[in-house]
Design brief:
The chain is an all-alpha fold. It has 2 domains: 1-96, Orthogonal Bundle (Rna Polymerase Sigma Factor, Chain: A), CATH 1.10.1740; 104-180, Arc Repressor Mutant, subunit A, CATH 1.10.10.10. It is built from 8 helices and no strands. The protein has helices at 2-33, 38-58, 71-89, 110-121, 125-136, 141-148, 152-170, 173-179. Helix 5 packs across helix 7. The chain is globular. The mean pLDDT is 81.
Length: 180
């Protein structure tokens, strides 16, 4: 009894350390996926960490048959799948505000970043997911296909078309902003 209690406490401490270390990256990815909706991004991170918590206690990360090699990568996968699931469940696409919140800090490329967020928000959820996974998280085509439960060819096609849509939305404003 004491041994299992100590093991449970050790798993609990291990999960808390994992969650504290990954929460920032998960939030940044969720923020991009949601097109700048901080509240939804926070909800997605909490949902992801909740799912990871339930998995953490059911399986041994270094254990036998149900081993997950990379918990951080798996958490990113859970985040993207939660986002896509949320987009399918959502009954409407209303947004509480058209303006993005002020960003803290003195960033020189704030206008460029806001323009990019606005353009990303106009893309479909799957297009956004492909672009964030491929270009923000720098995942390979195969990794992106695995996360999205799609084929590598479909990911290549979708990323090419999503980039074309993004370029059309940005027009010449991107080159003007990047030159600043």
């Amino acid at each position: 009894m004491i041994r299992s209690s100590n093991a449970r406490e050790a798993r609990e401490a291990e999960f808390l350390e994992f969650a504290a270390g990954r929460q920032g990256q998960l939030f940044r990815s969720a923020y991009f996926l949601t097109g700048g909706d901080t509240h939804l991004a926070e909800d997605l991170v909490q949902e992801t960490l909740g799912r990871m918590y339930s998995l953490w206690h059911r399986m041994s990360w270094q254990g036998r048959a149900r081993r997950i090699e990379n918990p951080a990568g798996y958490a990113q996968t859970v985040l993207v799948r939660s986002f896509l699931s949320h987009r399918r469940r959502r009954s409407n696409a209303e947004r509480p505000t058209a303006a993005f919140p002020d960003l803290a800090g003195d960033d020189g490329d704030a206008t460029l970043r806001l323009t990019l967020f606005d353009a990303l928000a106009q893309l479909s959820a799957r297009d956004r997911a492909v672009l964030v996974l491929r270009y923000w998280e720098d995942r390979s085509v195969e990794e992106t296909a695995e996360v999205l439960r799609s084929s590598a060819g479909a990911v290549r096609t979708r990323s090419s078309r999503a980039l074309t849509r993004l370029r059309a939305l940005l027009g010449s404003s991107l080159s003007e902003l990047a030159a600043l």
